[in-house]
Every structure is written in C-alpha cells, then in structure tokens.
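Reviewers of the previous submission asked for a worked example of the structure-prediction workflow described in the proposal, so we include one complete record here. The input consisted solely of the amino acid sequence. No template or homolog information was supplied to the procedure at any stage.
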Amino acid sequence: MNIQRWMSQQFFSFYITWGVFLPYWTGWMIYTKGITISQASLIMSLGLMIRGLSTLFAFPYLAEKLSSKTLVNAMAIGTFITILCYIPADSYSSLLAVTLLLNIFYPTLMPALDSAAGVLVQNKQLRDYGKSRSWGSIGFVAAGMILTFFTGALGDIVILWALILSTMIFMCLGFVKTPDILSQKPQAIQTDKAKVNLFSIKHIGLVLIIVILLQAAHASYYSYGYIYLLDINAPKYLIGLILNIAVIAEIIFFSIADTAFRKYSIGALLALAALGSTVRWGLIYAFPNVIMFCVAQTLHAFSFAMAHYAFMKYLVKNIPHSQIAKAQGIYSALALSWSTAVFTIFGGYLYEIEPRYAFIGMIICTVPALFLALIYRRLDH
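From that input alone, the workflow returned the following structure tokens.
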C-alpha cells in the first residue's frame, strides 16, 4: 500500500470534520438551539478543559493498551455516536452534557493521528510528514469554503449534518487497510530500551515549554480575530477569505517543509517560529488595517506551522515509540488546549481596553519562547 497516500487521506478526512466543528459549532448552538452567546461560550470553554484532560490522561493510557488503528477507530465511533446525541439535545444542560462527552472522544483523534505519523516516520515507512499533514490543512479550508455555500443557501441547520456526514466518512475510512505496524499492540513493538521515563529524555521539558508558549500566543487570534476584522472595517464578505490566508500559508509550509527545512536544527526552527510570531502580532498592533492584517496572516506559516513541525521533528528524533503518545498528549493538552484557554481570558481583558492590545499582548509568550529557543539551539549543538 502507498503509506504516504494513506496518511494524507487520514489527515484530510479528519480535518474536514475539524473545519466544520472549530469555526461553526458555537454559532450552530446559538442559532439553531437558541442558547445565548454566554451559555455557548461557557459550554465550549468547559469542553476545552475536558479536551485537555482527555488528551493528557485518557489518550496516553489507551495508547499503551491499544494499537493505533484500534484507538483511532474506537475514538471515531465514540465521536460519531456522541454527535448524533446533539439531534435530540434542546436545552442548555443537555448541550453541555453532550459537548463534555464529545470532548472525551473527538480531540484525541488529533494527537492519535500525529502519533501514528510519528511512528511511521521513525520506522522509515512515511517519507514526508509535512506533505501528508498539508492535506489536513487543505481539508480544513475545503470544509469551511463548502460549508459557507450551503449555510448561505440552506441555513445553519446544515452545520450539524455536515459534521455527522464528515465524521461518518472518517469513521468508515478507519476500517480500510492500515499499515501493519499501526495494527500491532504497543507491547508487541516495545523494547526494554524504549521503556524509559519521558522526562528523562534530553531537553524534553525545555522543548515543551517553548511550544506551549508558541501555541498559546494564538489565543487572541483564534478568539478575537473575526471581531477585530469587523472593528477595522474589513468587508464582511471577505472575512472568511482573510482568515483562510493563514491556513493557506500553513498548507504551503507543510508541503515544502521536509525539503526546504530538512537541514535546519530543531532549535533554529523554534527560534524562527518565535521570531515570526513576534513579528506577526507586532504588525497587527502597529498597523491596524485590513491589508497589513492580511500580510500578517502569512506569518501563520511560522507562528503555528513551523512550531508544530519542529515539535514533530523533535519527537521523531528523540522520543522512543513507547513514549510518543504521552508526549503528544502533553503537547495537545497544554499547548493546544489549556494554555490557549488561559491566554484567551488575558487577551479578552486587553481587548476590552484596546483591541490591538490583545495581539501585542501575545509577545508575553513569544519573546520568552525566542530566548528559550536560542538557548536550546546552543545546548543541542
């Protein structure tokens, strides 16, 4: 089988579902279920906390007991069944209960797929991680563009059915032929050498702190980017396109990363990511206009994609197979969930004072990350 194509297909099909859920789900609950903005925000925030717990504890534990294929399939089935529960849910309490349950299953699919890709790269079966991951970003953009058309024509009710359909497709693809190594239980492929403590691995703590800071710096953009564009009088019909510039930059980066940045050290990649992130938020602060916001969007290739790629490169190079899931769980929980939640609150406080402050305030993460990345680069030589 063509493992490169298989991994690309997995990323593409999963991120189509994520491209429906992440941008649209809060609005779907508000406009089709009739709850208030504050209620929806609380539901999603509590879901984010459960997401952190599930990726930090449940995912690594299950990854030690189950093969990658079994784990992904089980989480996909759980996700699909839980999403179906949204159909009868028609009150705040029932929507909260279903969302909390969903965040036990659904977010674990992200580190599970990255862990599978890491195992395949380590075993020389996947040649180009970046190229496969770029198909995930393509799926995310495609979902948003297609769904925008259907919601305009048929209304927000389409969002639920789009998520059900896309999740069902992803679930079904999990039962096609899978690379043999991903069908093996972890115990069958671990060695005594691999059974080491994660935090005894060289520089793991420093690298995790850097990537947590770099991903946390996106909090204001994720939460307030849309309303900031409205505040600076961006044409409403172009906002979706402007926001997608970041994902397009991400796609381009991942598609060339394994070729263009193969010889770069992990420390150099992290330092470049921190520098690009600092410049990105600085530009938005210094030039509050639509054109400069669009220019800054291209730096998502550095602030997000390069940081994520650097962590994956560190994982493949330094983390034994038995510890990949645990490392991915910590990264997913702390970098992609909890830190974002904390800095969203900080960014919201700054936004109320002056919208631009919410973005420049993120350098409280990026500047320390830059110095730490330079220290790590020196230590790793």
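The chain has two domains: 1-186, 190-381. We consider this example representative of the routine output the project will generate in years two and three.
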